[in-house]
Design goal:
The chain is of the alpha/beta class and 740 residues long. The protein is built from 22 helices and 22 strands. α5 packs across α14 and α11 crosses α13.
Length: 740
């Protein structure tokens, strides 16, 4: 009985459901069919929100369309990106052939540039990039040796409306036999996309190539594979570049203006929202935010009610004056995420305040940008003034100092931007021998720290102070010998005795560069320290080779005819231990600018001012041997060997470029003079006028390669305590220095 009731109840429920469906849905569907048959239209069960017939009373369809410059949705951007870059998931492990680079160890990292075709259009900026690669130590003209390939086709400007746009890139690169879907290729780009959306479309398929691109979006950036580079102008210097401005205005840390911006305002299109709102924070006192509509051919057609007032206010302030006198600089996005103002702010030590959501900052893999910039949010513009006001003076000074370090290390020239890109890729290829974040974010910067020498911070002289490390208590003397050994009375014999008596001397290495073979060990005097004679292969630059025999951190470089006392050696070594990153020695020289010849000059006059300490008697760290051999180009070392001259000047250039400081001169009993030898039987090189002229030319050649003059003048000299004081000589530690 109970089962029968249950079945009856279920049947009634089913009938009710059918009735409801018929009257609630079926009738409506039939009515809709009748209506559509009558109208001749196709009926959709659920209306489309863009249907004109469905939304006539709310908005016209044209009004519903988004502004042509408005940002796309994240899904649309991802779909567009995946359509353009089919290998968006590329990583070094999946899209890079490591075997091409490891054939010769780290020396296998070579870069090949495709030759440009006849009448190829190449922009000035791209020509600078190719020049930087071609003059680097990584360039090879043989594609079989290459680890990395760079196109000869200019890919910097991919805006189809630009005069620099190069068409048909896809067809051309597919014809390259080495293209291999872009594997092991590096593509440089500054501008992508075009009006109105400025997407990141390059107009060709990059395949598995590494993209070194400005204004990269974090959504499209392939971490550990792509490299984000800064946007730089065509006037950016090839080499060297100007120094940062902090040295001219260090204290107080805050400047006249707290926050500034002066630039274009876009009335329509992408990037207009951010810049249109900048006038809200302008107070005309400590915050100056100026925009102008006066740009482009038809700006007057689009001008709004604010344009005239903004244009007048814009002309009241000078951009360079604001840049020099502002603590913080707004860096809002433009049409693209990057902006020229980013590099301008870094150089000016004006702390960048970024308003560019989604921008992957330049060299973000290695640079800790939170130590140099303030990252704002475009949607929270009105909070920016209170944010920068809350930054304390110590933090302001630290941020400004870091902007200078980064500017001078990585951004002041096209050379540095390109070499930083290559070094980042090289560290990825040889990840077991690579720089750490500390090396990239501390002076002197990653480009001057060669991990092939060591990956330990304590092995580099410029990190000692920060690590609280003291250099070793022994040195290795390297004596450069060019004269054959004829008698036991030659100056080198006395020099060996003097140096070997120093309690700090660990060993002596004689670098034999004479045309005659070196004498047997029995010809050399007995000494309390090991003596090694090494073949210098008759190359002047060989005195700075990273000889394996040098085991101490300190190197005492000596010419064979140097005249010193043991006490002088000891004192100079103790001074060097306090300044291990610099050259410490005796004979000084100087450079000067000749306005008439518009060239650098070299002088050996005795004055209180000097910028060079000759390495004929000087201490320095052994790392500079490695840097001299592996960082400087072969062309400069060849010049030194061809002229048998200038190697000491080149070493001073190198060390000053690393430290941004002058060498240190110490007290000496006798002045080191470049005079002929007493007998007159042999003319020493510096007695020849041609020798001096060569040194003049060397100074200019070296300055040209560095792109600036790294030598720094100084009047600083270190003497022993009580040196030449009117007290008893017996009370002085280095009494021999004052005796005739």
């Amino acid at each position: 009985m109970q089962a029968r009731k249950k079945y009856v109840l279920l049947g009634l429920c089913a009938c009710c459901w059918l009735v409801l469906f018929y009257w609630g849905g079926g009738v409506q569907l039939r009515l809709l069919r009748l209506l559509t048959r009558h109208r001749g239209e196709v009926v959709r069960p659920w209306p489309n929100w863009t249907d004109k017939a469905f939304l006539p009373r709310y908005a016209h369809l044209d009004e519903l369309q988004t502004d042509p410059g408005m940002a796309e949705s994240p899904r649309q951007r991802r779909q567009a990106w995946s359509a353009i870059y089919k290998d968006s998931r590329c990583r070094m492990e999946t899209c890079f052939d490591f075997s091409r680079c490891r054939r010769r160890g780290r020396e296998g990292f070579r870069v090949y540039i495709y030759p440009s075709e006849k009448n190829e259009r190449v922009s000035e900026s791209y020509r600078k990039i190719l020049t930087s690669i071609g003059e680097s130590r990584y360039f090879t003209s043989d594609p079989r040796e290459a680890c990395l390939f760079v196109l000869g086709i200019d890919t910097l400007d991919r805006d189809q409306l630009s005069g620099q746009f190069v068409p048909n890139v896809d067809e051309r690169i597919r014809g390259y036999p080495l293209w291999n879907d872009g594997r092991n290729h590096l593509i440089f780009n500054l501008y992508s996309g075009t009006w109105p959306n400025y997407t990141e479309d390059l107009g060709f398929n990059i395949g598995q190539a590494i993209l070194a691109k400005a204004s990269l979006n974090t959504e499209h950036f392939r971490p550990g594979f792509d490299v984000s580079i800064p946007l730089f102008s065509k006037d950016h210097p090839q080499k060297g570049g100007e120094r940062g401005w902090l040295v001219r205005n260090t204290i107080p840390p805050r400047r006249k203006y707290l926050l500034m911006f002066k630039g274009k305002r876009y009335l329509t299109g992408i990037g207009s929202d951010t810049r249109n709102a900048l006038h809200h924070i302008h107070n005309g006192k400590d915050i100056v935010s100026l925009t102008t509509c006066r740009h482009g051919k038809d700006w007057e057609k689009h001008k709004d009610a604010r344009c005239d007032h903004d244009n007048l206010e814009y002309e009241r302030f000078d951009y360079q004056e604001l840049l020099h006198n502002s603590t913080f600089c707004l860096v809002p996005r433009g049409r693209r995420l990057g902006s020229f103002r980013f590099l301008e702010s870094l150089q000016a030590a004006c702390i960048p305040v970024l308003l560019s959501n989604g921008w992957e900052l330049p060299f973000s893999d290695v640079i800790q940008w939170n130590q140099a910039v303030i990252e704002g949010d475009e949607r929270l513009l009105l909070q920016v003034p209170s944010t920068v006001r809350a930054v304390g003076n110590e933090r302001v000074l630290a941020l400004r100092q870091r902007t200078q370090m980064l500017w001078e290390a990585y951004f002041s020239s096209v050379d540095k931007i390109v070499l930083t890109t290559l070094e980042i890729i090289k560290d990825r290829v040889f990840s077991h021998i690579s720089r750490n974040k500390y090396m990239w974010n501390s002076l002197p910067g990653g480009l001057l720290v060669l991990p092939e020498y060591s990956t330990h911070l304590a092995h580099f002289p410029f990190y000692y102070l920060g690590l609280g490390v003291s250099p070793g208590q022994e040195f290795t003397a390297v004596i450069h010998a060019v004269s054959p050994l004829i008698s036991q009375s030659q100056p080198i014999m006395k020099l060996l005795q003097v140096v070997s008596k120093s309690k700090y001397c660990s060993q002596i290495i004689i670098l034999w560069n004479s045309e005659k073979p070196p004498p047997n060990r029995s010809k050399w005097p007995p000494m309390p320290v090991p003596l090694t004679v090494t073949d210098g292969r008759r190359k002047t630059s060989s005195r700075f080779l990273p000889h394996v025999a040098i085991e101490t951190e300190a190197v005492l470089s000596l010419d064979e005819d140097t005249v010193l006392l043991t006490s002088e050696v000891n004192f100079a070594f103790l001074v060097w231990r306090s300044f291990p990153e610099r050259i410490v020695g005796y004979p000084p020289r100087s450079h000067f600018w000749d306005p008439l010849k518009r060239a650098w000059g070299y002088t050996s006059k005795w004055t209180n001012d000097y910028s060079i300490v000759l390495t004929g008697a000087a201490f320095y760290h052994r790392y500079y041997h490695y840097l001299f051999t592996h960082y400087l180009p072969q062309s400069l070392r060849t010049l030194v060997d061809r002229t048998s001259n200038c190697e000491d000047i080149l070493m001073n250039f190198l060390v000053s470029a690393v430290t941004h400081m002058p060498p240190i001169k110490v007290a000496q009993r006798k002045q080191y003079k470049e005079l002929p030898s007493p007998g007159g039987t042999k003319t020493v090189p510096w007695a020849n006028p041609e020798h001096f002229n060569q040194r003049q030319e060397c100074v200019n050649t070296f300055a040209n390669w560095f792109g600036y003059m790294p030598l720094v003048h100084s009047q600083f000299r270190l003497d022993p305590v009580l040196f030449k004081d009117q007290v008893s000589v017996l009370r002085k530690k280095y009494k021999d220095l004052e005796r005739a």
